[in-house]
Amino acid sequence: ELPPSEFMQVADSTWLVLSVVSNGREPPGCQATGVTKIARSVIAPLAEHHVSVLMLSTYQTDFILVRERDLPVVIHTLAGEFDIYKEESGECVPVTCDDVSNGFLKPKPPASPTLHPVQSPQTRFCVLTVAPDTLPAIATMLIDVLFYSHSPTWDAATGSQDLDSITFFSFSLIEGYISIVMDAETQKRFPSDLLLTSSTGELWRMVRIGGQPLGFDECGIVAQIAEPLAAADISAYYISTFNFDHALVPEEGSAEVIQLLQQRQESGR
């Protein structure tokens, strides 16, 4: 419904959404959530089969977007570990490898994946949700933050953003569930009784991946971040965008995460 515009770019691929639902068979004491929870079973295998993914964490769950043309290799890659269903007319119908067998083999690229730089701004973030019936009460504030807030400071001398004042705001509305990521200072502008968060009210720090626009063609970016965090049993909230990928980790352990990822970057060079 959006009118064509020179200011809007649309990727030529159609994407499908994978929603990973737990069946309760996780080992006792497993506390990691978010992208780390599905790193070994979903993200890493798809990266090994050269499938590019977009990752979208929400307050309620996590979604992986894959290109429609990659669906056959996705099914064959994950069928050994998961029961896979597709939605038809509101019903979940089992999917078998035979349903999408045509052309599922995809050659692996011989070159090693690019190791992108990671940066960690000083900004502290909140992960929140809002009850749908209270959304009108904060709609004006949301519009102001989304469209009229100042952009991040750009240093003309270095050609980079000032990481001490990075602007990041994410709003998603999926099947009636609302998720918001905002910095702690922006949160103060909203009525505290309408924004819901976990009982601990923890703050998050961001690790931003990429030194230049990442685009949508490269695979393995999410895996490079998710796998070491999974190995350390560290939760992460992950949001892919065209320009950068963003992993939010609990502030309490953020220094360990940043050191872990920077060491991985150095060892990969």
UniProtKB/TrEMBL annotation:
> What Gene Ontology terms describe where this protein resides (cellular component)?
cytosol
Q: Which UniProt keywords apply?
A: Cytoplasm, Phosphoprotein, Ubl conjugation
Q: Which Gene3D superfamilies match?
A: VC0802-like
Q: Which example biological process does GO assign this protein?
A: negative regulation of TORC1 signaling
The Cytosolic arginine sensor for mTORC1 subunit 1/2 ACT-like domain covers 116-199
Domain CASTOR ACT: residue ranges:
11-78, 201-262
Kindly give the SUPFAM superfamilies that the UniProt entry links to this protein.
Answer: ACT-like
Primary location recorded for the protein, binned into one broad class: cytoplasm
Q: Which GO terms describe its molecular function?
A: arginine binding; identical protein binding
Instruction: List where in the cell it is found.
Output: Cytoplasm, Cytosol
Q: Which Pfam families match?
A: ACT_7, CASTOR1_ACT-like
Query: What job does the chain carry out?
Result: Functions as an intracellular arginine sensor within the amino acid-sensing branch of the TORC1 signaling pathway. As a homodimer or a heterodimer with CASTOR2, binds and inhibits the GATOR subcomplex GATOR2 and thereby mTORC1. Binding of arginine to CASTOR1 allosterically disrupts the interaction of CASTOR1-containing dimers with GATOR2 which can in turn activate mTORC1 and the TORC1 signaling pathway.
Q: How does it assemble?
A: Forms homodimers and heterodimers with CASTOR2. Interacts with the GATOR2 complex which is composed of MIOS, SEC13, SEH1L, WDR24 and WDR59; the interaction is negatively regulated by arginine. Interacts with TM4SF5; the interaction is positively regulated by leucine and is negatively regulated by arginine.
Which family, according to UniProt? Belongs to the GATS family.
- Which PANTHER family has this protein been placed in? CHROMOSOME 1, WHOLE GENOME SHOTGUN SEQUENCE (PTHR31131), CYTOSOLIC ARGININE SENSOR FOR MTORC1 SUBUNIT 1 (PTHR31131:SF3)
Name the record gives this protein: Cytosolic arginine sensor for mTORC1 subunit 1
Which organism is the protein's source? Motacilla alba
